Amino acid sequence: MSKHDKDSKAGANQSRRTFLKTAVAGLLAGVATQIIPDLSPASAAEKAGQGWKILVVYYSRTGNTREIANQIHGMTGGEIVELQTVNPYPTEYRATTEQAKRELQSGYKPPLKTKIAGIASYDVVLVGSPCWWGTFASPVWTFLSENNLSGKTVAPFMTHEGSGLGHCESDLAKLCPNSRRLEGLAVRGGNVKTAQKDVESWLRRIGMRK
Question: What is the 8-class DSSP label of residue 16?
């Protein structure tokens, strides 16, 4: 074999190796794109700007979470739904906290009389709750357990009296493992009436407001 032939063969082999590496890299990149959810707020902002359909859904016992939900809805548009249980909670605060503790410890999920039609059509679901024992209120657990939010962008907002978000973000990851989860918002109950700037700042960070 001449030197020219050897050089040509070597060049062809190198070209085939380069092609195979490129093809494999492209295939792996495609697989990764399908498996890894896009959690980037920048991507959320871009898609929100393209007209995402937003649902603000919440449970409120004292009205604090309702106030924040209404502020969010006023800034984002979309739909807003308040969750209501079949059996109301006691009016007395301590009785409610004791019942909530029993429900959360046992995993009991109170039935809801609120039904949301066409939830599959929403792109973004912003989920609001008072902080009960460091997590979502039991009715919110019911909602998240009964509705498939896979592929949707989900973010929690919570009212509290010192516990912040608690561990609701890690609980949300367990309940909605196939959703795009964004950072949550925590507002102290005594500050809800004047929380507009905090709400707007949060919505900008997660890409729901330009």
Answer: H
